[in-house]
Amino acid sequence: MQIAAHANEVRADERVIEVNKVTTRFGDHIVHSELDLEVRRKEIFALIGGSGSGKSTLLRELILLQRPDSGSIQVLGADLLTLGEEEALALRQRWGVMFQHGGLFGSLTVTENVGLPLREHTTLADGLIDEIAAGKLAMSGLKPEVGAQYPSELSGGMMKRASLARALALDPELLFLDEPTAGLDPQSAGGVDELVLKLRDLFGLTIVMITHDLDLLWQVADRVAVLAGGKVQGTGSMSELSQMDNPAIQQFFDGPRGRAAQEQEKQQGDTPTHTKIARPPSKPK
User: Fold this and answer.
1) Which of 165, 166, 198, 160 has the alpha carbon at shortest distance from 274?
2) If you compute the radius of gyration of the chain from its CA atoms, what whole number of angstroms results?
3) What percent of the chain has pLDDT over 90?
């Protein structure tokens, strides 16, 4: 099976990711129990859940870093459990991943980090790769001089943006974001909100993110899946989830941070969700 042979089929299919009856175990511990979900083209889809709910494990399975014990996973029309090595390599070039802690190489400059996927997977000249890397950094909201710095010299917000620039290096059609605002101050996190929406709207990206940031969920997510007990307990917009009578879901709305996010939503009235990028000046503790 060649990935390229499915290009037309993928474009016609609204579902970019399909997870069917996935079960994952670590010894006697069941992380996923016949878990199902789907992600649609050009949507911003979020995974949330408590500690140990299997969010990170599912992300690793979606990006070919781990295999489930049973079930099936299709991404961009390809069955991840039957891919050969060359097919997996071709598929990886169609998505980008921003890891929670950046995942940048400390011995490389930011420009070298961003250009690394291009050096590994293309035959472009070094000068052109550096130009493309500079463009990706600008797209991610970083100034040109940042490219000459090393990861250890970056703030947390700059590190997130540099990691995002590298995830965009190969012009992916699918983008995975692992805790994109974790550890950021409200102003920096608000900039990430705006950037995520901009990338989806300008480039038609499908974006899947794991986050605990309720502001980010209310501001940018089209749909959110709540993981608990090895399964998806509910899927929908944040407004739809807030009306579901399920304790595993309601825990995200009943605490002070959840109530604050809902109150902000009410104050903004009928403004379309994807124009609301301002964050509250502070969060209740």
Assistant:
1) 198
2) 19
3) 67
Query: Tell me, what DSSP letter sits at residue 171?
Result: -
Residue 276 to residues 89, 164, 235, 267, 279, Cα–Cα distance (Å): 38, 22, 21, 11, 8
Q: How confident is the model at residue 46 (pLDDT cuts 50, 70, 90)?
A: very high
pLDDT tens digits along 166-188:
999 999 999 999 999 888 888 77
| Structure tokens given for 225 | 């899946």
Burial class of 226 by CB neighbour count within 10 A (0 to 12, 13 to 18, 19+):
buried
Residue 164: the pLDDT is: 93
Please report the pLDDT score of residue 5 as a whole number: 39
DSSP codes joined into one string, 73-119 = EEETTEETTS--HHHHHHHHTTEEEE-TT----TTS-HHHHHHHHHH
Structure tokens given for 219: 């501001």
Residue type, 8: N
Give the CA diameter of the chain: 57
- Which phi and psi angles does 164 have, rounded to 5°? -65, -40
Name residues whose C-beta falls within 8 Å of residue 240's C-beta, 6 or more positions apart in sequence.
Answer: none
The pTM of this model reads 0.83
CB atoms within 10 A of CB 125: 9
Q: What tens digit of pLDDT does each residue of 77-105 get?
A: 999 999 999 999 999 999 999 988 778 99
Cα-based angle 192, 197, 201 (whole degrees, multiple of 5): 150
